[in-house]
Amino acid sequence: MGFLKPDMPVVDFAEWSKGSRSEMIRPMARHWAEVGFGTPVVMHLFYVFKILLYILGGWLFALATTGVDGFTNVAQWWTEPIVFQKVVLYTMLFEVIGLGCGFGPLNNRFFPPLGSILYWLRPNTIRLPPWPNRIPLTRGDARTPLDVVLYGALLVVLVVALFSNGTGPVPALGTTIGVLPMWQIWTILGLLAAAGLRDKVIFLAARGEVYASFTVAFLFVGYGVDMIIAAKLVCVAIWMGAATSKLNKHFPFVISTMMSNNPLIRTKWLKRRFFEKFPDDLRPGPVSRFIAHFSTAIEMLVPLALLFSHGGWPTYIAAFVMLCFHFGILSAIPMGVPLEWNVFMMFCVVTLFVGHAEVGLVIWPRRCPSCCSPYWPPSWCSATCSRVRSRSFLACGTTRETGTPRGGASSRRPTRRSSVGSSPSRACRLLSSRRSTAVRNKR
Q1: Is 0.85 surpassed by the pTM of this model?
Q2: Residue 353 CB neighbours (<10 A)
Q3: Which pLDDT tens digit goes with each residue over 378-387?
C-alpha cells in the first residue's frame, strides 16, 4: 500500500462480476489476508495524530485544575484523584460527541467522519428507546426537543466538570486539591441515564458500561480510599468481562483478520502465517489461535494480580504485561478503532494500580502495628485507632517512609501497647471486641 494511494484488489471486473458469490468473495478474501483493508499509510498516521490530540486534551484539562501545575511536572500530580476523574469524564465526552470509537474512514465514515452529535442535536432524527413498553415517557422513534435538551445538557455539564476545581483537602485520599463536586457527578449520571432511556444509542456511544461505571465509583469519595478501590474493581470487571466474551470459537478469526490489517506488519509472508494454509484455507492458523488464547488468558488473570498485589515487583510486572497487552491492540489500529479506550485503560493501569498500589483488597486480615488488633480493610484501623486518614500512613501508627511507629519507638515489631500511650487504644479495643463478637455470632 502507498502513502496516499490505497492498495485495492486487482481483478477483471467484467469477468469477476460473472462469477458466483463464492467465486467473487475468494479474491477479496485472499487480498485481505495479504494486505488487509488496503488503507493508505496517511490514514493510519491520521489516527495516530488523533490519539495524540486525545492525550493532549486530557493533559490540558488536568492542568485546568487549581493546584495542578506544570505541563512537564507530571510527577507532582499524576496520582491526584481529580485528575483521574477528569480523564474519565473527558473520555466520556470524547466518545459521546463521536470522536472515539467508530470515527473516520476505518469505520466506513468518510464525509462527515462522525455522526453522533450531528444527529442528536437535531429534532426528528431516529432514536431507539431500550424499553418503550416498560419505561413511561419513552415511547416513539422520533427525536423530540426533550431528547435534544437532555443530550445538550449532558455535554454542557461534562464541560463544566472538566473546568472545575477541587473541593479542597481530602485527607483520606491524601490530596489537598480535592475532588470534583458531588453535584456534578450526580448530574452527569442522571442526564446520561435519562438520555439513555430515551435513546439507548447515546448510552452505548458514551461507553456507559465503562465510563459511567467509573463515574459511579466517584460516589464513594466520601468513604476515603473506597473510591480508588471501586475504580480498581471496575477496571478488573471490564478486563474480565472482555476476556469472557473471547471464550468462543470465532475469536481466532478476529485475530487473523486484525493482524492482516496491522500497519506494523508489512511483509505478506508474515501475514500469511496467521492463516491455516494460504491461499486455499483461510481459517485461523496456529499463530492466530495461540495469540487468541494467550491474550484471553492475560486479560482474565493478570488483572487479578494487579488487584491483589500491593506494590513491588509483582505489581510492576503485571502492570507491564497489561500495558503491552493494550499497546498490542492499539498498534494494530483495528477497524472499529477503539483507540482512545486502550489509551485510557493504559492510563488506569499506571494511575490506579501503580500510583495507588497500596490501596486495594487483601485476602487475609492484617494487624495494626500499634495495638496488634486485626483490621479489614486497612483503612478501618487507621480511621479508629490512630485517627490517621492520610495515605502517608500504611496502617495504624506506621509511616510509609520509615515504617516505625509514630511515637518514635525504634522497634518495628507489633506490640499490644499503643505507641502514643501506656494502654492500648480504646478505639482499637472496641474494634477488636466487635470483630470477636461478630466471629462468635457467625459461628
Answers
A1: no
A2: 28
A3: 444 444 454 3
